[in-house]
Give the backbone structure.
Amino acid sequence: MAIISCPNCGTKNRVDEGAAAEMQPVCGKCGAALDVSAASANDKPVTVTDATFAREVLGARGVPVLVDYWAEWCGPCRMVAPVLDELAAESNGRYRIAKLNIDENPRTAAQYNIRSIPTMLVFKDGAVVDRIVGAQPKQAIAARLR
Ligand SMILES: [Zn+2]
C-alpha cells in the first residue's frame, strides 16, 4: 500500500500498488487521477532547476514543498543534506523536499532573493509561507513543515 496525495485537492489516498498497475487509481474525494509514481518520488529530495521550478514547486497543490537552496562549495549545506534526506524519507506524502543548486540555477535564486545559503523556503500552493536561513537541526526544520 502507498499513500498518495491527490494533486488536485490534497486528500491522502491509500492505493494498492499492485491494483494500480491494472487500473488508474483516482482520488476518493474528488476523482482526480493519482500519480502512483509520485509515491516513490516522495522518498528522496527532488532536484529542481530554473526550468522545472514552476511546475515542481509553484504548481504543487495541497502539500507544502520545502526548497533547499544550496551550492557545492557551501559547508553548512552539506550538513543539512542528510537531514533533508531523512525528512524526505519520513514525509509519507505530507510534504515534499526539493533542492535547487543556486550556481546552476541563478534565475530562481535571484527571484527569491537568496543572499546566503543554506536558505530553505517553504512553499504552499505556489506562495512562500516560511523562510529558514542557515543550517538548522532536523526537529527545527520538521516543525516548519507541520
Ligand atoms: Zn482529490
Notes: The beta strands are 2-5, 12-15, 46-47, 65-70, 96-101, 119-124, 127-133.
